[in-house]
Amino acid sequence: MAIDLYYTPASAPCRLVLLVAAALNIELNHNLIDLRAGEQLTPDFLKINPQHTVPTIVDEGFALWESRAISRYFFNKYGEGSTLYPEDPQARALVDQTLDFDLGTLYPRFAQYFYPQIFGGAPADEGLLKKLGEGLGFLNTFLESRDGEYATGPQMTLADLSLVATVSTIDVAGISLKPYPSVAKWFELVKDTAPGYQTANGEGIRLFKELIDNHKAKTEL
Length: 221
What we know:
Elements: E1 3-7, H1 12-23, E2 28-32, H2 43-48, E3 56-59, E4 62-65, H3 67-78, H4 89-120, H5 126-145, H6 158-172, H7 181-193, H8 197-219
Parallel strand pairs: 1-2
Antiparallel strand pairs: 1-3, 3-4
């Protein structure tokens, strides 16, 4: 039976869930949620997720939200034989650390800098841009210091799929990755090797770029 996914494809956390599902060959029932129309606040959705966030899944009556929790759940239930979440305690700890870095540092710094401009019409804050650059610098250092081409070692893991959803969003927002050569190199690798990348992430990135372009068109009138 397919898992119900409630999502909006332009969202980086939603695209992480799509990427993990693609990598593990998990069948999903796609339920689009229009956040601007307030569909996340309907009584039916609030019964599923009182926090009214996306992505949210329902798997045989079990509801779960928060993209990285969903990613781990997918692996734990459906990931037999996969190396996306290694069994070795130290290798898994590095994956968890990197997932937490994306959740607690990199993605929030992008969101704090960019989303007020797109959704609130705020001017760009150079201080917040500097903090985002610092976060990208941290990632660049991680990639330089770890043993392998991927985020935590020689194999792709959940950490790569989480980070690529964020980094692709940063990239399409027009923030250059050139000052971070290891990030740029890793980004190209994951785009080429993540299963189903174009469908799971590329389509959502296209929609996010349309949102950015529409905003720019309105502000330039």
